[in-house]
Specification:
single chain, mainly beta, outer membrane lipoprotein receptor (LolB), chain A, 14-stranded antiparallel beta sheet, 14 strands, disordered N terminus
Amino acid sequence: MPVPGIPSAPILLVFLTAALTPFRQVSAPRTKNGEKPASGGRSETVRAFLDRVHRALVSPEAPRKPVAFQASVRLSHRGPEGQIDIDAEIAFQAPDRLRTVLEEGDRRITRTFDRGRYWMQNGKEVFELQGKTYAKDRASVRRDLALASLLLRYLRPAEALAGLEELRGPSPVLLRQGRRGARKTLRIQGIAADGGRHPLVLSPGHRGPVGIRAWFVEEDLRLLQVELRPLDPKTRKPAGPREVLRFHRHARKSGILIPVEISVLHPDPEGRLRLSQRVLVRNFDLNPPLSPEIFRKPR
């Protein structure tokens, strides 16, 4: 059941997409993204590049098999009525346990999923998400569950990206982000054949392929920007609006370098990218000991 004042979009979607890496090749000298081809640069196979990304982002002490995570984030959402700040706590245990807690002012909403059972607590009221009334809530929880699983896969990016179709790069590109000036980056791109495993904010019903491209800072391979776009299943041409995430600061957590400040940009009616949300990742813990009790009916 949607709760007025708290956007149903997606703290989890925004946060988890940040773990993704990498779309259509750009041939024009300058694009709407503010990028242009960079001159020079060494030739490198995509596999070799992914190996370098993995070594830069994942330390030897990082868990080899991620099976769970716990995170706290703050989402600042810009809407028609101004800015809304929401604090969220997320816990996931693969393959099918999830808990999210949202707080905005004095309001607190808890949702849990435990092996097929959906629960929600709004204030003191606790109810199971059953029947047609809560169909959208169940769909939202299932999407969050898919995203949580996606995050675990992309924490080891070389292994996850190797599964994309039409994978290519790295291409040297000068990427301009507003007033920050141009940055030397390396871009990789590919296509995720199953859109259901890469949920989108602006195209929530899309189940076809998703074009993915990502820009990494050339000198240290930090992830700088990701773009996702739904593609037509037959032609693989754009079939919906692009969604862009920009990353401004990184920190090593549980042995993995992740973005901790994220801007979410969506196109306006004229196609210009506008800031929609900002996310601050306050804490991230990989493979923590999670009690099964936290995923059950809220109390």
